Amino acid sequence: MPPVSTRPRRRSGLRFTLALPVLGLLAPAAAAAAQERLTITGGKVAIYNLAGRTSVERGTGSAVVVEVTRGGRDAARLRVEQGPVGERATLRVVYPGDRIAYPQGNSDTELRVRDDGTFGGSGRGREGRRVRVDREGDVEAWADLRVLVPAG
């Protein structure tokens, strides 16, 4: 299943892309576990995550803010990385292994994921290792995201 791409109209110079291969998971993030709050600045922003719930809300200020809440027995094995990839400022949740268990998911998804946690993109879909996300897997981990996007 291809990633979801959200591209609002460009007003203030900010372009925002959200890549989510597991569809049907747009909902408020759970607040039970420890939460990380990260800021992404730049004219073009992309967020990559393989499994979890995501909400996108209007934020304040001029930067995209992402609240990350990890879940699953292997949550500590997830790496959250930031930095430029191509011309975009990114936040990437990097998953270990090739079989990711997301018990709350409602579909099975298989895609190619590059070592930096990115996936998809024109002409780049065949790069990376093959990763499967479903209800069972070797690594049980996910990241719920609350994404706060500034107006415009």
Account of the 3D structure:
Helices cover 0% and strands 45% of the residues. The chain is built from no helices and twelve strands.
Low-confidence runs: 1-12, 22-32
User: How is the main sheet built?
Assistant: 4 strands, mixed
Q: How many alpha or pi helices?
A: 0
Strand content: over 45%
Order of helices and strands: EEEEEEEEEEEE
Shape: globular
* Integer average pLDDT: 82
- The end-to-end span amounts to 29 Å
| Gyration radius, rounded | 14 Å
Strand neighbour order, sheet with most strands: 1-3-7-6
Helix content, binned percent: under 10%
Counted beta strands = 12
Give a brief rundown of this model.
0% of the residues lie in helices and 45% in strands. The chain has 152 residues and is mostly beta strands.
